[in-house]
Fold this sequence. Notes:
The complex is a heterodimer.
Chain A (H helix, E strand, L loop, with lengths): L1 E2 L4 E5 L7 E7 L2 E8 L4 E6 L1 E2 L4 E2 L5 E5 L2 E5 L6 E3 L15 E2 L1 E4 L2 E4 L2 E2 L1
Antiparallel strand pairs in A: 1-14, 2-13, 3-4, 4-5, 5-11, 6-7, 8-9, 9-10, 12-13
Chain B lengths: L7 E6 L3 H12 L6 E7 L20 H4 L4 H6 L3 E4 L3 E5 L4 E4 L4 E3 L2 E4 L3 E3 L12 E3 L3 H11 L4 E5 L3 H12 L3 E5 L12 H13 L3 E3 L4 E6 L5 E5 L4 E4 L1 E4 L3 E3 L2 H5 L10 E3 L10 E3 L4 E3 L2 E2 L3 H15 L13 E5 L2 E7 L9 E7 L4 E7 L6 E7 L5 H10 L33 E3 L4 E2 H9 L5 H8 L9 H15 L1 H5 L9 H10 L5 H8 L8 H13 L6 H4 L4 H5 L2 E2 L5 E3 L10 H13 L3 E4 L5 E6 L4 H10 L12 E6 L13 H12 L8 E6 L13 E6 L2 E6 L11 E7 L1 H18 L6 H7 L3 H9 L7 H13 L4 H6 L2 H4 L17 E4 L2 E4 L2 H5 L6 E2 L1
Parallel strand pairs in B: 1-2, 1-7, 2-3, 7-19, 9-16, 10-11, 10-16, 11-12, 18-20, 33-34, 34-35
Antiparallel strand pairs in B: 4-5, 5-6, 8-17, 13-14, 14-15, 20-21, 22-23, 23-26, 24-25, 25-26, 27-28, 29-30, 30-32, 31-32, 35-36, 36-37, 38-39, 38-40
Amino acid sequence: MTTLNNWIDVCSQDDLVANSGVCALVNGEQVALFYLPEQEAVFAVGNYDPFGEANILSRGLIGSLGDALVVASPLYKQHFCLKTGRCLEEEGKSIKAWPARLNGTQVQLMPVKH
Amino acid sequence: MTTANKTTKLVVAGNGMVGHQFLQSLADSGQLDNFEVTVFCEESRLAYDRVHLSAYFSGSSAADLAMGDAELYRSWGLNVLTGEKVTAIDRSSKTVTTDKATSLSYDKLVLATGSYPFIPPVPGHDRDQCLVYRTIDDLEAIEATAQKSKVGVVIGGGLLGLEAAKALTDLGMETHVIEFAPRLMAVQLDNGGGAMLRQKIEALGVKVHTGKNTQLIEDGSECFHRMNFADGETLETDLILFSAGIRPRDELAKQCDLELGERGGIVINNQCQTSDPDIYAIGECALWNKQIFGLVAPGYQMAKVAVSNLTQGNDQFTGADMSTKLKLMGVDVASIGDAHGRTPGSRSYTFVDERDEIYKKIVVSEDGKILLGAILVGDAEEYGTLLQYMLNGIHLPEYPDSLILPNRGDDAQTGLGVAALPETAQICSCHDVSKGDVRASLDGGCCTLGDVKGVTKAATGCGGCAALLTDLVNHELEEMGVEVNRDLCEHFPYTRQDLYNLIRVEEIKSFDELLAKYGKGHGCEICKPTVGSILASCWNDYILTEKNVSLQDTNDTFMANMQKDGTYSVVPRVPGGEITPDKLIVLGQVAKKYNLYTKITGGQRVDLFGARLEELPLIWAELVDAGFETGHAYGKSLRTVKSCVGSTWCRYGVDDSVGLAIEIEDRYKGLRSPHKIKFAVSGCTRECAEAQSKDVGIIATENGWNLYVCGNGGMKPRHADLFATDLDKETLIKYIDRLLMFYIKTADRLQRTSVWMENLEGGLDYLRDVIINDTLGLAEELEQQMSHVVGTYECEWKKTLEDPEALKRFRHFVNADETDSNIVFIEERGQVRPATPEEKIQPEPIKMVS
């Protein structure tokens, strides 16, 4: 994965929902953003669920399985790692993940080529 | 019009066991919509269980044996014609013609025509009272003839012949079995096994004659027939049953010039296609690699392979193991693999117990490491173990004979433990279920043998694997450990009931508080909604507060039901199913305005499908304006109280069922519980509201109301139990208050009332003690808790619409006004439906609706 350029603004912290997800449109791509206030962390992964073939991962429940922070698809409950996009049930169906952060009250994402 | 060019016209000739399995597999594939299916069933009855045909004479009815089900087939959208058979196939025009002169074109044709009993061309074979044994009609003929007969003969001492002999003895006849070969079950057994079987069967009163060649059947003097054998002997009998093997029903294939085997049978490839790739043949009519498979398991496999290939899969049929285990007249008989030791260099071990009449033989490879075959007569307990040794090539123990020698205690644990089986080991051959499949079903939530059978279908075919399956399930459950199994998830080492008590007793009000005190990690999609539900049951806080919202499944978060394409369906509450014309019009107007697909639900309300996330608040604003409340179709909570029209209108009505239904629905609406709860109220014993299939069912009597509890429909239907009779309304509601709260307090996650009650020690009686006799002294507390929930009800949608913060979540993108371009609808039957993936990528969609 190669870095294309620097952090870009996506939305404001107000748009996020604590311990849950929202969806943003970034360069024409649907990105699911998850906010964990306890860790002051934002995670960005693709919003498209490769199993259900629908744009809904931002509406999944987040949690942990072992050491991995994950989102569970609201359709068929497969788990995707919030940090890497790896699918825990089927490696071949992993999704994209982007570095993301809170910069003040700005939510920012690093566009990378996958 | 949009789908006409996409559906494949599929004609299925034959509805026997394999034909039925084909339809079942097609339904299981989820692709029925892509086919327009017509099934021709020659018999007047739909598919039934021929394997257990003899049970018909020991008490089972035709209905008990039935497998096909007209209602089920209808629900699958199949066009099934009974009493009609295909008589000709025109392959150039791709048309079939039937004996009722129906002419029908096909894109794909499946021949599942089965086989017919072979009748040796003995002079006199076509005399009256010469019968065969294959269909229920045959059984009826046998039964009728038996009434005027004393003596019966079965010609053929194979597997089916002995089954038929059992039928004749069950009918009270003096029964003879005539076999041409020198022993019984010549294909499956060796001389030793055949002799032991003969001994056991003769002890049951059946007379066995082996090495007999029937040459003539003529009028008898004592009985109706006299049979003359080549050795000069004769036998008088009233009834003759031919069971001398089967022959494939390949006449249709012959008529349309499909390739046949030298001795009959429709030649198929590994995809089960005949020489015409658009025509498939499966089951006993098909010839694969010069073999006909006269058992049901290989037929089922062929059915699945054909379905796979018709639905773009690529399963292959690569032969089948012909091992069998069965009970013949109460005698266990099994034959595995190379039972006759025909493999060069093979050696065998034999164990004979003449006192208990047991014969066992195993055939092992030259190096003694692999099991090649086995025969078991009189005791087939080791069948499962031996079969797994053979199928999986598992190395034999140092002394292979220990596998069949009696285990006389001490330390001799010789059988192959289920733990040693590989994941791929096939447990059930009828339904092709592996050890891995069984384990997956247990991981997926099955807790009992019954659950596993329901989910995997293992042991529901011939039943030969039942013992093995039981061992496996027990072993796996033990491995999992009951304690581990009851933990909610990896974050909480507690059951749902434990968590409920902790939350109640310690007055815990949030997930974080509970996790900090009693859990670890960050929670997951199992514990979060469970705790969210318990918090709602206990404190009835608004589910979308900041601390609660992240606990809810998407359905609860957005108070609608997510569908496969990411859109939602909306179900407003219609208490008791009573709705004014004006409200009905509003539903129609809203559906029309937002282009929603509408369907009437089983709970007497209207479901509106295809709402985008951002449309939900707009839709609900209009619904709330018109006086609707949320229907909680998305929640584990009270769904509906169904009712019949009751005494207000109905000539037979005894009491006002609609009135009571509305009152009850209003009382319990919004109540969060371990699983969904459904109610119904019927106004008389005609039970038009189907109250006995509900968690709580109420039926009016002349003296009040009868209360039924813990029933359900769905995957595993259960009739509700009568709990109390002739109650006045006040008592009725008191009992329901207590019952529901007790359920919420003590049930496991996603446990419906039926399973909950069955798992209570003491079951229904115990429940009556707690609810009616108040043996636990809980009644008042339960009523108070319910009263709190009832008193704090508010419509979640109404509240959400008043809360700008909550409404912020109802947009697809937080940073753009666009909508999700992946949601595409197609028009069908005048309404929208989600486009399939293929339709979405078509350059010019047939008819898209925005």
